[in-house]
TrEMBL record:
<dbReference type="InterPro" id="IPR050446">
    <property type="entry name" value="FAD-oxidoreductase/Apoptosis"/>
</dbReference>
<keyword id="KW-0274">FAD</keyword>
<keyword id="KW-0560">Oxidoreductase</keyword>
<feature type="domain" description="FAD/NAD(P)-binding">
    <location>
        <begin position="3"/>
        <end position="301"/>
    </location>
</feature>
<dbReference type="InterPro" id="IPR023753">
    <property type="entry name" value="FAD/NAD-binding_dom"/>
</dbReference>
<dbReference type="Pfam" id="PF07992">
    <property type="entry name" value="Pyr_redox_2"/>
</dbReference>
<dbReference type="InterPro" id="IPR016156">
    <property type="entry name" value="FAD/NAD-linked_Rdtase_dimer_sf"/>
</dbReference>
<feature type="domain" description="Reductase C-terminal">
    <location>
        <begin position="320"/>
        <end position="404"/>
    </location>
</feature>
<keyword id="KW-0285">Flavoprotein</keyword>
<protein>
    <submittedName>
        <fullName>FAD-dependent oxidoreductase</fullName>
    </submittedName>
</protein>
<dbReference type="GO" id="GO:0016651">
    <property type="term" value="F:oxidoreductase activity, acting on NAD(P)H"/>
</dbReference>
<dbReference type="GO" id="GO:0005737">
    <property type="term" value="C:cytoplasm"/>
</dbReference>
<dbReference type="InterPro" id="IPR036188">
    <property type="entry name" value="FAD/NAD-bd_sf"/>
</dbReference>
<dbReference type="InterPro" id="IPR028202">
    <property type="entry name" value="Reductase_C"/>
</dbReference>
<dbReference type="Pfam" id="PF14759">
    <property type="entry name" value="Reductase_C"/>
</dbReference>
Length: 406
């Protein structure tokens, strides 16, 4: 019988493998992942796992029984070193060679690292996997100082978790505002206010230049402007880079991710790619994009599974994302880039619940919903529907959310 190999054992793989069975694949399915764990939920790492409310056992994306029932095999703690497309085989770092009929690349992404002086000191961490969290937890301590380098989602979520654990937390962000790469100024202002209300110090427009310490452990974070911050723990969150090297070396087309079509197919008819590593065309926004989110990995994996089975089920889902910080549940529907108008619903300056609607040429393209699950659901429908919206109605709290849909 035929063999489908999936490289990477995380969100995309945990969807792709069972979806293959649903689409009718009756051959062998083998998932190869370099982490030593069965696929687990990554988002809680910076949230409930870091703060100790959840541990590794709570994180499994699917129960072992589901994989067993679907006859899905795993090889964990194992890295794929290269792919030989001419022979339809791949080589593991231990030298073992495996043959495939179909191949799925779910290699995800890894943290962007910095090469500043002192970065090798103990107490300085990145945050991408379960091992990272366990390492960070060893340096957590009530009343101790934590410095977060980078004010993106990971940095801010980590700051909130460490604050909850009783640390003094400072966030250092190079850009003039936090979340600058992904959101509008309104949301940045809001998160800056809530973090300072909670006692987190946020410094923007400041560039970290290095780290000092003694006995091999970090003690200070130094900045380009001469300021320094005491630190018992440093977490660096300055973005991620897609794992495309395997694909690139195998001659697949790579450009800000492994280039795939709307059905997750690469330029090799026997190879698909899905998740953080894949660059796909989005019909709704009419451009190519590489998204870094769980819903993207999951939905794209379904399209990839169908393609492997010779069916066309294009990935057309509306992008969405979430972030949890303190008591704030942010849900983002759609993508806001290119907006020409922002409409605010609710009191974003004094409360912890509001919506920022992003419009382009009179139509809703995105919404940031803070503790507003109803508006989030409605926004998804409004964006997908593509009809013109009335800004004044969106802002009017006397109109119930469900009446905002035409
Ligand atoms: P990944 O999860 O990156 O997994 C890829 C796997 O493949 C990794 O285990 C990698 O080691 C392995 N691999 C790579 N190359 C090889 C190889 N050659 N051989 C073997 N194995 C290989 N998303 C949200 O939507 N909401 C959130 O709130 C959110 N919070 C997050 C918080 C944190 C701390 C982090 C780190 C991420 C968060 N994300 C969140 C992003 C989300 O986790 C990712 O988008 C998602 O994990 C992508 O899944 P993936 O399967 O594409 O890749």
């Amino acid at each position: 019988s035929k063999t489908c190999i999936i490289i990477g054992a995380s969100h995309a793989a945990a969807q792709l493998a069972p979806s293959l069975r649903q689409e009718g694949w009756d051959g062998k399915i083998l998932v190869i992942g370099d982490e030593p764990y069965m696929p687990y939920h990554r988002p809680p790492l910076s949230k409930a796992v870091l703060s100790g409310e959840k541990d590794a056992d709570d994180l499994l994306i699917r129960a072992q029984a589901l994989y067993d029932k679907n006859d899905i095999e795993f090889k964990l703690g194992t890295r794929v070193a290269n792919i030989n497309r001419a022979h339809k085989s791949l080589t593991l770092t231990n030298g073992e060679v495996l043959n495939y009929d179909k191949l799925a690349l779910c290699t995800g992404s890894r943290v962007r690292t910095v090469s500043l002086p002192g970065v090798e000191l103990e107490g300085i961490h990145y945050l991408r996997d379960l091992k990272d969290v366990h390492d960070i937890q060893k340096d957590v301590g009530e009343g101790k100082n934590a410095v977060i380098v980078g004010g993106g989602y990971i940095g801010l979520e980590t700051a909130a978790s460490l604050k909850k654990m009783g640390m003094n937390v400072t966030v250092l962000e190079m850009a003039p505002r936090v979340l600058a790469r992904v959101t509008a100024p309104e949301l940045s202002e809001f998160y800056t206010r809530v973090h300072s209300d909670e006692g987190v110090v946020i410094k923007t427009g400041i560039a970290v230049s290095g780290f000092d310490g003694s006995n091999g452990h970090v003690e200070k974070v130094t900045c380009g402007d001469g300021t320094a911050f005491d630190a018992d723990l440093v977490v660096i969150g300055v973005g991620i880079v897609p794992n495309v090297e395997l694909a690139e070396a195998a001659g697949l087309t790579v450009e800000n991710g492994i280039v795939v079509d709307e059905c997750a197919r690469t330029n090799d008819p026997d190879i698909v790619a899905a998740g953080d590593c894949a660059n796909h065309p989005n019909e709704l926004y009419n451009e190519r994009m590489r998204l870094e989110s769980v819903p993207n990995a999951t939905e794209q994996a379904k399209a990839a599974a169908a393609s492997i089975c010779g069916k066309e089920k294009p990935y057309q889902a509306l992008p969405w994302f979430w972030s949890d910080q303190f008591d704030l549940k942010l849900q983002i529907a759609g993508l806001s880039q290119g907006y020409d108008q922002v409409v605010i619903r609710g009191d974003k300056d004094n409360s912890r619940s509001f919506v920022a609607f992003y419009l382009k040429e009179g139509k809703l393209i995105s919404a940031d919903c803070v503790n507003r699950p109803q508006e989030f659901m409605i926004s998804k429908r409004l964006i997908a529907g593509g009809a013109a919206v009335e800004p004044a109605r969106l802002a009017d709290e006397s109109i119930p959310p469900k009446e905002l849909v035409p």
